[in-house]
Amino acid sequence: MTEEIVYKIVIEDEDGYKTLFHGIYGSRRLPRNKWLRASIKYGVDGSKQKPYVTGFHCFKSNGKATEYLKKFRTEKNRVIIICFVRGLRRKPTNKDVFLADEIFIPSQKC
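The chain above was modelled as a monomer; its predicted structure follows.
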């Protein structure tokens, strides 16, 4: 599987990074220097959409991640990080958002 560099919006606190919404196997913490596999689930955005396989939400450019971040009610503790992913595909309900099967967050900020 090919690795790609992407941008991800996360919550940063004194203990590291957390996911914005859904956890991974019961935790919202995102450990560094470890490949994480997304929980395989089916999601639906809206009542008329077809189900799709979920994954780690990310963006192919920092600009798109920054645009998306502006949609949140608060930017408090939200940061955009660079990470590596495998199994990347476009989210069917938003052309700017991509979903990844696996993610790797380096220990040092890029």
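Strands lie at 3-13, 16-18, 29-30, 35-37, 42-43, 52-53, 56-58, 78-90, 98-104.
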